[in-house]
Amino acid sequence: MKQENLNIELVKLDRLISGLPELGRKTLIDSRADMYVLDLIMIAALKRTLSLARGFQALVVSKNMTCIRAMIRMQLDTISRLLAYTYVSEPSELAKEVISGVPLNKFKCRDGHKLQDRYLIEKMAKQYPWVTEVYKYTSGYVHFSEKQLFDSIKSMGDGSLGKVSFDIRADDLYFPEESWIEAVSCFNEMLSILEETLLTYSNEVLYQSKK
Fold this sequence. Notes:
Elements: H1 2-28, H2 37-61, H3 65-83, H4 91-99, H5 117-125, H6 131-142, H7 146-151, E1 153-156, E2 164-166, H8 177-210
Antiparallel strand pairs: 1-2
């Protein structure tokens, strides 16, 4: 049953990845006479997501949990920063500044908070509560931390012997199936959030152009 669940998530992942180019065409090209500066931010988010997603997919197959969790953190960064443009009064002006090289965290959202990573995660977590724990946990895979030590442990003895067996290899074969299911499911959720964000943005642009 566990393997079946993982296969289901992997099929969903492949479907979402395969649909990203069409999603971009549908939301950023079709029924559009003009191009807007904010489109460039959406294109960048779409490109980064597609690259990360294909890499993530390959890493699941090769059983590389270390890199998988780092890429989850990278994609969470993509989504949380993309959503930042929905928190400001003038998203197009923000896009111009960011494209010119000004860091996102130099700007403030409508409620006066700076658009810093931790705040963006807190803001996103109001709609997606799981984000807080995922951000905290996967940050330990972007940075060198205790996570790397614990992941290298193959088994631990009991009693007074205190024997520890380490497994130093490129792949991660000793993670339970639930860990792989959880990782793929999490990435799928972020792809779904991107899809929803792009569709909402496209509808808003079309609405404004018809006013």
